[in-house]
Amino acid sequence: MRILIVDDSRSMRMILKRMLADMGHTDVVEAEHGADALDRMLESTPELALVDWNMPVMNGLEFVTELRTKREYDKVKVMMVTSESSPRLVYEALKAGADEYAMKPVTREVIEDKLQLLGLG
Amino acid sequence: MSLGTPARRMPIPEDVRDFLGDLLGKPVSVTKASKVDFSKEPDKFVTGLYVDDKNRLIGACITDISLAATTGAALAMMPAAVAKEAVEAGKLEEGLRDNFYEVVNIMSRLLNGPSVPHLRLTDLVDGVPQDVLDLVEKAKGRKHYDVTVVGYAGGGMGLVGA
Ligand SMILES: [Mg+2]
Q1: Which of A50, A69, A111, B92 has the most neighbouring CB atoms within 10 Å?
Q2: Nearest CA to CA, how far is A44 from chain B (Å)?
Q3: pLDDT digits over A27-55, tens only?
Q4: Which 3 state secondary structure label does DSSP give A43?
């Protein structure tokens, strides 16, 4: 399964990548923000995108909103992985088309549970 | 004398301990510390600036360089020696700084909650700017902590929220 990590923090991308590798997922693509992610997706479509909220250029909410206007990406599952925890923002993200929501700091157990919920476990 | 309960619930040491423990993937100990006068030696600190949805400064995370370097190194599993070097140099090099930025970014979660203005990290600066010193004086929420990360070092942190 190809997984796209979208986060402006290099350390956070590294942590998530390491966590995914421990779970056996090594086909991982990284992007620094939403616009970068859309570019990467032209090269190869992931099955899952782990998406931060606060990023420069194009934030996570803008990315999901944009992604959901493109029919070719209908099947891409989106999990927000963010420090934003307010119910209002969770609602906004889900309404925009995110499939799951995990709050930082995220643990391997949480990612595993969410993948199960998405039918990707 | 009480000026009333803080509008924003400031995290207790156990909250900070669990939070940093999960984030860094290492045992962390946190105790309540006495108040620090940040204006005395501002160069010894690094400050994360939290703003509201209208970009007004409403919160800050002020840590000494030792804690910034410690958590920055621990987050990326860099050796403790990297943090020690930063402490000796008195500043964070770019990698540690990036890592610590994310620590402070995620830390905003500890200050957010229902029925208080939402805040988010907007910048990480060296020292303690005057507007933060002013905020420290007038903010309703203010707590100080001593933090130690097992296998690394630690340091002091102040959280402020209007
Ligand atoms: Mg971010």
Answers
A1: A50
A2: 28
A3: 999 999 999 999 999 999 999 999 999 99
A4: helix
Q: What is the CATH number of domain A3-117?
A: 3.40.50.2300
Helix axes B94-111, B80-89, angle to 10 degrees: 100
Find the CB nearest B98 among A10, A83, A104: A10
List the single residue in A14, A15, A85 with the smallest CB-CB distance to B109. A85
pLDDT band per the 50, 70, 90 thresholds, residue B5: very low
- pTM assigned to the model: 0.89
In angstroms, the Cα distances linking B57 to B96, B109, B134, B161 are 24, 16, 11, 9
Residue B115 has a pLDDT of 82
Q: Which domains does chain B have, with CATH numbers?
A: 14-161 (3.40.1550.10)
- Res B36: pLDDT: 94
Q: Omega into B42 within 30° of 0, i.e. cis?
A: no
Any chain A CB within 8 A of the CB of B19? Answer: yes
ipTM: 0.82
CA A104 to centroid of ligand 1, rounded, Å: 10
